[in-house]
Amino acid sequence: MNHDVLEQEALLIGALLVSPELLVELELKESDFGAVDYQMYYSAISSVAKSDVGASVFSVDEYIKNSTGISHRDVLMQLSLEGANQVRYYSAQLASYAKRIKKESVSRAAYAITSALIDNLNAGNPDYIGQAVNELMNIDSADMNYDHSFDDVAISVVDEVEKNIKGDNGSIQSGMTEIDKSMGGLFPSDLIIIPARPAMGKTAFMVNMFLKCDGVPGVISGEQGASQIGVRSVCIAGKVNHHDFRTGQIEDGDWTNLNNGIVKFKEQKGRIFDKPAPTMAEIEKTCRNWVYKHNVSVIFVDYAQRIRHENRKLNKYDAMSDIAMRLKELARALNVPVIALAQVNRSCEGRPNKRPEMGDIADASAFEKEADAILTLYRDEVYNPETSDKGVIEIDFKKNRHGPTGCVRMRWDGKYMRIDDFNAYENFQEVNSYE
Q1: CA–CA distance from 34 to each of 8, 9, 78, 329, 394 (Å)?
Q2: Would you say residue 116 lies in a domain?
């Protein structure tokens, strides 16, 4: 350990013995000290300072003696004498000492993690890489300040108001006008769940959104390969008949549209990870790489129930509950919105009103708790061929932390699998519109 840092640790312990009120100002913790004895002294000072006795050389020594059976009075006395000079003549330097000690603590933690990683790799355990990366990312976050005064929060609220007025609140516009009006856009750290039954257009909805949004999309596709997602994207962006494309019936007039679709798709600068049924750890690793190396700013997952948990012993419910929490944690850690498609139980088809509810999400009620928004999809023409709502897809906000709940109706063009805003009539209907 660096001798200068060790000396500064000693001076800080001495200063705290003389002026324990510095505990609040210096914002250190026991593990920040490299010397084991200084960790013990800091812990004792912190504990005694909270008591009615108050921290002093004698009370701290008594506390340590009661715990270990050994008196440290002579050492504590010497530290306090040196610390008294610091408080009296060099108090301005104490904050810089604390900063240096904190920096050294982070370096030790990083070294310990990388050493453990090397040991695991040498032992033939490459799965430890993901855990090591997570631990390295969490080193800084562990020291984040989570204690805020009302005064500080009030200032941040004013800042938020100014950002919102300027349109600079960090949200990504989905490109779907009515959805953006209801949510204010796709906010960093939000988890948005989009449940629907098969054939309702879940994947098409995702593709339309990542083509329209003003961010750089990353797509986790556990069900379809990258080329399939690419074909869908190009057909939607270029207004090319998907069936004609798949069967090779491309007419002369389609080539221009096809080229326009390819250009639009490439302009998004996105990424696709198409490993079948990926594990949550693989998704976390991939998304971290995307955000830090490729500037990905919004993540789409198709779909939640296709994600495998690393612990094969967990039952389906517990596995999906953990995956739901980790998707939310991923959004927070990377500070990007995560939009995950989800399956809906078949039971909703036995009801007169087949529109899915939050409780219909397959295998995971945890999504109801973790999600910031839940948007169910429904197309009435799938069940009722003679419906007057042909060409309509309903996006129903069952949960929305940033705005009202209710239903947005959008135009569904099945030939191109395009979803677009209706502009001819009021789209948003308040809650209970189907009761």
Answers
A1: 11, 8, 19, 31, 59
A2: no
Helices 36-49 and 3-18, axial angle in degrees (round to 10): 20
Provide Rg for the chain, Cα atoms: 29
**CATH number of the CATH domain containing 56:** 1.10.860
Sign of the dihedral through C-alpha 93, 95, 98, 99: negative
> 12 with 97: CB under 8 angstroms?
yes
Interaxial angle between packed helices 226-238 and 202-212, expressed in degrees from 0 to 180 and rounded to the nearest 10: 70
* Residue 152 covered by a domain: no
N-term to C-term CA, the chain = 69
Q: In this structure, which amino acid lies at residue 49?
A: A
H helical segments located in 142-220 = 150-166, 177-183, 202-212
Is pLDDT above 50 for 141?
Answer: yes
**Assigned domain for 227 exists:** yes
Q: Write the pLDDT tens digit of every residue in 8-47.
A: 888 888 888 877 777 766 777 777 888 888 888 888 888 8
Long-range contacts of 47-53 (CB under 8 A, 24+ apart): 48/20, 49/20, 49/23
Q: Does 314 fall in a domain?
A: yes
What distance in Å separates the CA atoms of residue 286 and residue 219, rounded to the nearest whole number? Answer: 10
